[in-house]
Amino acid sequence: MAGRDRLGRFFAGAIALLAGGGVLLQVLLVIQTVEAQGRSAFGGIIVAFSYFTVLTNTLVAIVAGACALLGDRESFLTRPGTRTAAALYIIVVGLIFALFLTGLREMSGLTLAVDNILHRVVPVLFGLYWLAFVPKGRLGWRAPLGWLLYPALYVVYSLIYGALTGRYLYPFSDVTALGYTGALANGLAILAGFLALGLILVAVDRALAPKRPI
């Protein structure tokens, strides 16, 4: 068990460095872009952290970093429920990118590498970390309802951000193209996807729970 704990902490530390490093580079790239457009570096930071991908990779970096430092010791960030919520969010980042966003932008060099880290590498690695190292059998069926708070708040924020700036961050939330009815319908569909995947993760958690002696 001690060896497994060390391996889990090492794995979590590697994910924290990848996610945190990817976020830092992404923020610097966005700042460079907005400064070239005559806007401020602070404005670039706001733009970068308005993306669900950047916010969620930041969350994963924090949770994974806490797990690397503390292992399975009890704290809010290391609880199975918290780690499962983070896994849910980052897996959705990877799925939405693969299904709806791949190929929408021409990228190369560092920009492409950072994009792959945030959208592909971190979602896969943290999903594997959750599967292999997060204690199982501690989640209730109501937990996915609580996990909806973060994406629901983001849906609201993205619509407010778009209304204030005239710039919508994702094509499925673009009110100028879809209207509020279409954008809200897409938001509700995405939240339903979060709920469905959350329930799947709870089912997997229960299936992998240690068997109790009869």
Write the layout of secondary structure elements.
Blueprint: H1 2-36, H2 41-48, H3 52-70, H4 80-101, H5 109-133, H6 143-147, H7 149-165, H8 175-207
Helix pairs in contact: 1-2, 1-3, 1-5, 3-4, 3-5, 4-5, 4-8, 7-8
Describe this structure in words.
- The chain is mostly helical and 214 residues long.
- The chain has one domain.
- The chain is built from 8 helices and no strands.
- The chain has helices spanning 2-36, 41-48, 52-70, 80-101, 109-133, 143-147, 149-165, 175-207.
- Helix 4 crosses helix 5 (109-133) and helix 4 packs across helix 8.
- The two termini are 23 Å apart.
- The model has no long low-confidence stretch (mean pLDDT 92).
The poorly predicted ranges are: none
Q: State the total count of DSSP E strands.
A: 0
* Global shape: globular
Distance between the termini: 23 Å
Structural class: mainly alpha
Round the Cα radius of gyration to an integer and report it: 18 Å
Q: Summarize the biggest pleated sheet.
A: none
The mean pLDDT is 92
Strand content: under 5%
Topology pattern, helix = H, strand = E: HHHHHHHH
Count of the domains: 1
Helix content: over 70%
Helical region count? 8
Q: What labels describe this entry?
A:
214 residues; mainly alpha; 77% helix
What is the compact description of this entry?
This protein is an all-alpha fold and 214 residues long.
